[in-house]
Amino acid sequence: MAENFRRSERPTLGIEWELGVIDPETRDLVPRAVELIDHIEPRYPQLHFEREFLQNTVELVTGVHTTVPRAVDELRQGVDALTSGAAELGAAIWTSGSHPFSDFREQPVSPKMTYAEIINRTQYWGQQMLIWGIHVHVGISHEDRVWPIINAIMTHYPHLLSISASSPGWDGIDTGYASNRTMLYQQLPTAGLPYQFGSWAEWEAFQHDQSTSGVTNHTGSMHFDVRPASKWGTIEVRISDATSNLRELSAIVALTHCLVVHYDRMIDRGEELPTLQPWHVAENKWRAARYGLEALVITSRETEERWVTQELSELVDTLEPLARELDCYEELQLIGEILERGAGYARQRRIHELTGDWRKAVDATSAELLELRPIR
Question: What is the E.C. number (predicted)?
Answer without folding.
Answer: 6.3.2.2
